[in-house]
């Protein structure tokens, strides 16, 4: 394993201090915790708090700032943060109007965030939660843990964050967050696995000509392994699964995210996006906004995910609202 | 000199730390390659934080649970943390272990894990070792066996539980994303749970 690190034990700690050093105008760190909150505070507005394992940078700390998150908790690499950390984030972010937790649907994340929410409610803080589950690679069944929350979560941060910034109540913010969750779907793939620093070796092995379809964002293997083909063919496969949801049709408007997994050149993401746009045009689906870049990564994994969000006037307006954070700036 | 309960918890911790890579490799097959790393980090903290001089078993288990909760993360943190904290209630104020209390503690741990993880037996989780272990333990104890003999039976059942997890697909936790591809692999949580029971048996 080759990594630019000082030691596997201090990565998260050093990363957070490095982020604060780079963006003191946006974020500050809670003393003694792996939590970033807005440097300018969240007084008088509903606070949005998210987080999860580290290794998905810029998620989630990079989205702390005006118009998106008020607090972000960084767990160990690919490991949900613990309840005490989430609890501190809720307390620090609360501006007196309540806190909405944006949780990605993983067994550990849900358990840890729910325990923290219970602790905060005992202290009289109003806490609500939404759970993102946009990954169509996973069957949505009562017999599994359910779909994973992946890159589509960023649209929840953006849109619910804009609603909170505009003075929306906790109920309003939760409602728009749930509207995004209902209308957003994603699917990803990898041409090569990632290496968790503490594990020291790739999380799965792929032959030179193999790809993994339906990967998550934690180096967990996908649902299908196959021979590599052109990026257009691969994008078609991902889009077919997303279209099979029956949410997106002719005349609809969507926001598109072509998300890099951390090790994929932007060049390749733009190549993918060219084709995605053509496919959407062909189906009569209008593109309201496109994001191409590394928004929800998986360490050094090579691959990408496609996310579609169906937008109505309300979501479009909130999506277009200004945001000013380390990783997402929109005037 | 440290107390028996501290020494026992330390032995469990050392067993987990010793098997860090093994547990992580099991998790790499069907999960996200961190079970051993996370559990080792948690038990390192347990070894450092649990009071070596207080013989109160309940207090030591409670501290263990809270420490795991705040250091392990993932799903294992809340699940093991809850298990130890629920077992702690059975042993509150006690300095000796008998079979009846140990069985009650296993019951309490199972109930806590089920409430937090919303899982049942047969979903390829730690419960597939823990529930059969508890059943074997109680049956043996009811038949007049000693605590150690009952724990022996529990460990046999827990190991059978590990073998059983190889035959089924996961429906809880990250391994559930693999669907039938998780068949053939043993569950890391059932494995660390079995190590825990074996260490307690060997310690007694």
Secondary-structure element pattern of chain A, one letter each: HEEEEHEHEHHEEEHEHEEHEE
Largest interface: pair, residues per side: A-B, 36 and 31 residues
CATH overall fold name of the largest domain in chain A: Rossmann fold
Main β-sheet of chain A: number of strands, strand sense, barrel status? 6 strands, mixed
Q: Helix count of chain A?
A: 8
Overview of the structural elements:
- The complex is a heterodimer of chains A (331) and B (204).
- Chain A folds into 2 domains: 8-183, Dihydroxyacetone kinase, domain 1 (Rossmann fold, 3-Layer(aba) Sandwich), CATH 3.40.50.10440; 184-320, 2-Layer Sandwich (Hypothetical Protein Tm841, Chain: A,domain 3).
- The model of chain A has no long low-confidence stretch (mean pLDDT 95).
- Helices cover 31% and strands 24% of the residues of chain A.
- With 331 residues, chain A is an alpha/beta fold.
- Chain A contains 8 helices and 14 strands.
- In chain A, helix 4 (153-165) packs antiparallel against helix 5 and helix 6 packs across helix 7.
- In chain A, the strands form 3 sheets. A 6-stranded mixed beta sheet of chain A has the order 1-2-4-3-5-6, sandwiched between helices. A 6-stranded mixed beta sheet of chain A has the order 9-8-7-12-10-11. Chain A has a two-stranded antiparallel sheet with strand order 13-14.
- Chain B has 204 residues and is an all-alpha fold.
- Chain B has one domain (4-203): Serine Threonine Protein Phosphatase 5, Tetratricopeptide repeat (Alpha Horseshoe).
- Chain B contains 9 helices and no strands.
- In chain B, helix 2 (20-30) runs antiparallel to helix 9, helix 3 (35-49) crosses helix 4 (57-71) and helix 4 runs antiparallel to helix 5.
- Chain B is globular, with a radius of gyration of 16 Å.
- The model of chain B has no long low-confidence stretch (mean pLDDT 95).
- Classes of the chains: A alpha/beta (331), B mainly alpha (204).
- Chains A and B meet through strand 4, helix 2 and helix 3 of A and helix 3, helix 4 and helix 5 of B.
């Amino acid at each position: 394993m080759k990594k630019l690190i000082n030691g596997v034990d201090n990565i998260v700690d050093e990363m957070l201090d490095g982020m604060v050093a780079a963006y003191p105008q946006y974020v500050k760190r809670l003393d003694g915790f792996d939590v970033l909150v807005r440097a300018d505070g969240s007084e008088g507005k509903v606070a949005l708090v998210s987080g999860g394992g580290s290794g998905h940078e810029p998620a989630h700390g990079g989205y702390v700032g005006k118009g998106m998150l008020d607090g972000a908790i960084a767990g160990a690499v690919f490991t949900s943060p613990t309840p005490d950390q989430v609890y501190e984030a809720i307390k620090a972010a609360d501006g007196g109007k309540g806190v909405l937790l944006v949780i990605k649907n993983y067994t550990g994340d849900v358990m840890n965030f729910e325990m923290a929410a219970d602790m905060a409610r005992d202290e009289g803080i109003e806490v609500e939660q939404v759970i993102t589950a946009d990954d169509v690679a996973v069957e949505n069944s009562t017999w599994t843990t359910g779909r994973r929350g992946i890159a589509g979560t960023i649209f929840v941060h953006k849109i619910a964050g804009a609603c909170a910034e505009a003075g929306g109540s906790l109920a309003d913010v939760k409602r728009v967050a749930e509207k995004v969750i209902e209308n957003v779907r994603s699917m990803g793939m990898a041409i090569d696995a990632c290496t968790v620093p503490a594990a020291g070796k790739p999380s799965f092995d792929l032959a030179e000509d193999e790809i993994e379809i339906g990967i998550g964002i934690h180096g967990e293997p996908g649902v299908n392994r196959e021979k590599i083909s052109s990026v257009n063919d691969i994008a078609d496969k991902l889009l077919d699964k997303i279209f099979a949801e029956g949410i997106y049709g002719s005349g609809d408007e969507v926001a598109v995210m072509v998300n890099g997994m951390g090790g994929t050149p932007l060049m390749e993401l733009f190549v993918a996006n060219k084709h995605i746009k053509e496919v959407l045009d062909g189906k009569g689906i209008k593109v309201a906004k496109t994001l191409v870049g590394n928004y929800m990564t998986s360490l050094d994994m090579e691959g990408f995910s496609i996310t579609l969000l169906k937008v109505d006037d309300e979501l479009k307006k909130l999506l277009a609202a200004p945001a000013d954070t380390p990783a997402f700036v929109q005037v | 000199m440290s107390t028996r309960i501290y020494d026992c918890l330390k032995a469990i911790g050392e067993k987990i730390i010793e098997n860090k890579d093994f547990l992580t490799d099991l998790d790499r097959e069907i999960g996200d390659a961190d079970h051993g790393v996370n559990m080792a980090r948690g038990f390192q903290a347990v070894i450092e934080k649990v009071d070596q001089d207080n013989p109160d078993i309940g207090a030591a288990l409670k501290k263990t649970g809270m420490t795991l909760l705040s250091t392990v993360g993932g799903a294992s943190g809340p699940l093991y943390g809850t298990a130890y904290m629920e077992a702690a209630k059975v042993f509150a104020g006690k300095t000796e272990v008998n079979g009846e209390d140990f069985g009650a503690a296993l019951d309490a741990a199972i109930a806590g894990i089920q409430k937090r993880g919303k899982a049942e037996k047969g979903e390829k989780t730690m419960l597939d070792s823990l529930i059969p272990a508890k059943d074997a333990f109680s049956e043996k104890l009811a038949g007049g066996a000693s605590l150690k003999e009952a724990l022996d039976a529990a460990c046999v059942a827990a190991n059978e539980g590990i073998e059983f997890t190889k035959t089924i697909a996961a429906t809880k936790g990250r391994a559930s994303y693999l669907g039938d591809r998780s068949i053939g692999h043993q569950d890391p949580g059932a494995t660390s749970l079995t190590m825990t029971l074996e260490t307690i048996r060997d310690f007694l």
